[in-house]
């Protein structure tokens, strides 16, 4: 478990290298989420996207990347909203230990 000072005021990790699956579970718990296999599929995809493009995807890019990588059924905003309520790109990135997407409020 990381201490509160490892996160910024919005709950994003300050040091990306502090992330691990246990930290993801800690962040998810603080957001009242319990991570299942479908969550991990998207978390891993978000981390893959970040490593490939050196940026955190906004919602439209995330939907498109999910569709390309996981198929059209999972490349829908409604599917992502069911896993990461509110703002899937923002919440998914937070749990994935990535920076906040640029255009998320």
What keywords describe this structure?
5 helices, mainly alpha, single chain
Question: Could you characterize what this model shows?
Answer:
This protein is mainly alpha-helical. The chain has a single domain, classed as Arc Repressor Mutant, subunit A (Orthogonal Bundle), CATH 1.10.10.370. It is built from 5 helices and no strands. Helix 2 (37-53) packs across helix 3 (59-70). The longest helix is centred in the middle third of the chain and has 17 residues, at 37-53.
What's the count of strands? 0
* Unreliable sequence segments: none
Large-scale geometry: globular
Q: What's the CATH H-level superfamily name?
A: DsrC protein, C-terminal domain
Secondary-structure map:
Elements: H1 21-30, H2 37-53, H3 59-70, H4 77-83, H5 88-95
Short description:
The chain is mainly α. The chain has helices spanning 21-30, 37-53, 59-70, 77-83, 88-95.
